[in-house]
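Reply to dn_fold:

You asked what the input looked like. This is it:
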Amino acid sequence: MKKNDKFKNFPESVTYSIEHQNEHFWRCRYTSSQVTSLYYKILLPLDVKPVRIKPELIAGTNNLYAIGCYQTISGAKFPFTEVDVVYEHINNDIDASDWGEHILGLLDEEILYCKYYYSVSGRYADFLTKKDIDNETITSRIRVFKNYDFENNRANVIMVKACCNWKDYESLAEDLFHCVKFFTLINDSKWHLAEELKSINLDVPANYSFYYPASWQYSERYNNEKMSYYSLSLKEESNIYGFIDGYFLYHDATINKEQVCKLIVSQLKENNHLEIDEISLRERKDIFNKNIEELWTGELKAKNARNEEGMSVVFCGKIQGSWFYIIGSFALQKQNFGSWAAGKRAIDIILNSLNNYDLEYEDQFYIEH
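and this is what came back:
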């Protein structure tokens, strides 16, 4: 089943009465981590109790920690359920949904269904997965969250996973849903990004204003009455992990989107990118920033003379009568997930904030769904 297909039993709203919830669930308060931004509350079935609460590095990973494991006690009258809470520290802002899919891939979880949620702090996801373990199929309901850690100046991305045997899923589907839905952070920062933002404000060749993540280094290439061109780069020591170039045109400029894309491909070839896919633009309808009148996007893969692969993504849009281009160049997702995800999210922040003066970055997203 494709992850965007509708799954026949994927509860999205509570049907249990208050009386049933009071009789069959209890609220666990977790404060065992030394990091207070990880303190949480979670709703669990009465027979599901803590078995591990001290942070433990998950085997085979570098920075993924389990901070809570809860299991059905022996002798319970209901089928076995396990609930796990895991997290990872991140320094560059990324979409929690991308991180969730990446982690599920590392854990060999097959995604049966996925529903995305959008917020000013990025895209989130609610998953249903399955995995074969010791000749049994385990199904899991999973949600991902993100919260800034002011103590350590970074963010935590958190995964809450409630699972049971596949044969018991029909009877436990809403129980699993309760476990992930009613997860809340005790010390919610209200800032669900991994870093601070900086702003760029232009009045030539037209009025443009937007935010970008503070980890990206800004340089202005040129600025005149016809076009403004800027460049952002994600660097760590001597390594560069991505570029974002922005071109902002004067008001009411007439352009040919496809012709500009051909010029982009030609420029890449001149820069020793020998193998390049052709690029075709498609219109994007799911625009978070309602000030953008139209938005087109396309991507291509390229290989340079050293046989190194990379990708470029192009956005062509019109806002308040003015055209702009944003071009991102990153490693492929399979090569370097972190830099790919950071670049993708940085472009989203730029697009979402572009001339969007009513945008507020403090949100209550994780308790709204």
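The radius of gyration is 23 Å.
Hope that clears it up.
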